[in-house]
Amino acid sequence: MASLVPKDKRQLRACLICGIVQNHHTFRDMGCPNCEVHVKMARHNDMVTDCTSGTFDGVMAVFQPKKSWVCKFAHVSSYRPGIYASHVSGRIPEDVEDALARAGIAYHPRDGSADD
Asked: Which keywords appear in this protein's UniProt record, sorted alphabetically (predicted)?
């Protein structure tokens, strides 16, 4: 099983959709472990740049997302174990948000704008 904690702390980015924290090159090489089905980041550097942010805070380690009330509150209970940011600055592009809506996926902005 791959390590949940990024080994290289440089160039860490958080997915704007699910909040998982990985290195830029991991998003580029393997995509997002939660969102890749709907947002193709693997081998698409422009999509990695558009759908992730290097500005985030409030990280949490998630090992059993389905059993955690914190994960339910943070909207990550259906995602894979990993390191997640609680607040990610930025928004996904409108066309990506529209594609998620067409797929029946509720987008919860992680920049705090949904709390306004």
From this structure: Elongation factor, Protein biosynthesis
| Phi and psi, residue 86, nearest 5° | -85, -25
Phi, psi of 87 (to 5 degrees): -135, 125
| Three-state secondary structure string covering the chain | CCCCCCCCCCCEEEECCCCEEEEHHHHHHHCCCCCCCCCCCCCCHHHHHHHEECCEEEEEEECCHHHCHHHHHCCCCCCCCEEEEEEECCCCCHHHHHHHHHCCCCCCCCCCHHHC
